[in-house]
Design brief:
single chain; about 450 residues; mainly beta; 4-stranded antiparallel sheet; 6 helices; 33 strands; Methanethiol oxidase; EC 1.8.3.4; selenium
Length: about 450
């Protein structure tokens, strides 16, 4: 893994502020180039590939198209990054009405399949009500070929997913109803049952829903899910945002799947905030390619954490860094009880600029030594919790990682400021590399994984 080439280029979806959506489109940035979308109000979010390590050994499959789902418009863009990787061009798109015809909307996570098809998870029905399901897209024509799930196996909610044919399983997670989360976070929506708290387990061969793992109050809003990269291992981790816990999921001896809480981020008792208790709000997690470290971001508290997961049932905290957030000591929020910190963290600065917002999306270099961080979650949530991102734009930061003993430190010489864009500030979101990364590649055999690296 340490021989992997250093990343030279990253792709970032950039979202314009809500107040400017009637005039400006979102775009895909390579830092030196901007590909503007032909439509407005899309809310580009997570991206994925037309081909990945699942296609290992098939010379006809090339990682040359970046798939860009739009959460608000339900449109899916296909971007040509093969002709000129530094200057992407729009190749084609799937329109909302084509998504609605499948009974789905609000596309989120993209994964390629070993067959050459592309699968995208969805979070709503055409009216914006909660509904989990998956669309299949032909990897050559980029036309929807149907729904992946069995006709009777849609779920109450959708969000992220990971599949592993080695264990004949796909497991998906749950955010909430698009009509709820698109307007910002309202605690009453949680009480009304508009947010999820379960893992949904599918039989990979039959596409049938075979198990629902209810995580309960300790597992509210399970978002990003990651299997261990070693495909022979029947386990992984999921980050639960609202309850701020990490659950380990695993296959039992009887063939069923189970889950157990292995990391708990305590809430802070606070004044001058929306609620009397502030959760960490774990919004992104990832695993290093050698399956040694787990990383996650606490978007409200403002820190990134690194855990040694050599013992997957007992993760050990080995690195932590605060980069802004809602707990900074010169902000309005006052912490009245904290069982972790002795004092509120200082605000973070880089190149003389105060870092706006809080660390959110994270992506690790292939050698595990550099962690890239952006600070935007979702435009309506940004506007609610960190309005300075809307005004000043988000940033792209680089964290240096100690891969021997563990440890995180800010690279003081690396900063991409999206507040200085030609057409105004934007919110940059998820990072992708042309050569693949820790959260988009799925290996089907151990040999394929090692050969790829």
């Amino acid at each position: 893994m340490t021989k992997a080439p250093r990343e030279k280029l990253v792709y970032l979806p950039c979202i314009v502020p809500p107040a400017e959506r009637n005039d400006k489109p979102d775009y895909l940035a390579t830092v030196i180039h901007r590909l503007k979308m032909p439509n407005k109000g899309d809310e580009l979010h997570h991206s994925g590939w037309n081909a990945c390590s699942s296609c290992f050994g098939d010379s006809s499959k090339v990682r040359n198209r970046l798939i860009l789902p739009a959460v608000n418009s339900s449109r899916i863009y296909v971007v040509d990054v093969g002709t000129d990787e530094r200057s992407p061009k729009l190749y084609t798109s799937i329109e909302p009405w084509q998504m609605f015809r499948q009974g789905l909307s609000a596309p989120h996570t993209t994964h390629c399949l070993g067959s050459g098809q592309i699968m995208i998870s969805c979070m709503g029905d055409p009216d914006g009500n909660a509904k989990g399901g998956f669309v299949l897209i032909d990897g050559q024509s980029f036309v929807i070929s149907g729904n992946w799930e069995d006709r009777e196996s849609s779920t109450s909610f959708g969000y992220d997913f990971w599949y592993q044919p080695f264990h004949n399983v796909l497991i998906s997670t749950e955010w909430g109803a698009p009509n709820a989360f698109r307007t910002g976070f309202n605690p009453e929506h949680v009480k009304q049952g508009l947010y999820g708290h379960s893992l949904n387990v599918y039989d990979w061969t039959t596409h049938k829903l075979i198990q629902n793992i209810d995580l309960g109050e300790e597992g509210m809003i399970p978002l990003e899910i990651r299997f261990l990269h070693n495909p022979t291992k029947a386990e992984g981790f999921v980050g639960c945002a609202l309850s701020s816990n990490i659950f380990r999921f695993f296959k039992k001896e009887n063939g069923k799947w189970g889950a157990e809480k292995v990391i708990d981020v305590p809430s802070k008792s606070v004044k001058n905030w929306t609620l009397p208790e502030m959760p960490g709000l774990i919004t992104d997690i990832l695993l290093s390619l050698d399956d040694r470290f787990l990383y996650f971001s606490n978007w409200l508290h403002g820190d990134i954490r690194q855990y040694d997961i050599t013992d997957t049932r007992n993760p050990k905290l080995v690195g932590q860094i605060f980069l802004g957030g809602s707990l900074v000591n010169d902000g309005p929020v006052k912490v009245t009880k904290d069982i972790e910190l002795k004092k509120q963290p200082d605000p973070a600065y880089i190149k003389g600029m105060r870092i706006p917002g809080s660390p959110q999306m994270i992506q690790l270099s292939l050698d595990g030594k550099r962690l890239y961080v952006t600070t935007s979650l979702f435009s309506s949530w940004d506007d609610q919790f960190y309005p300075d991102i809307i005004m000043k734009g988000s940033v792209l930061l680089q964290i240096d990682v100690d891969t021997d003993k563990g440890g995180l430190s800010l690279n003081e010489n690396f900063l991409v400021d999206f507040g200085k864009e030609p057409d105004g500030a934007v919110m940059a979101h998820e990072v992708r590399y042309p050569g693949g990364d820790c959260s988009s590649d799925i290996w089907l055999t151990n040999t394929a994984g090692m050969n790829k690296l």
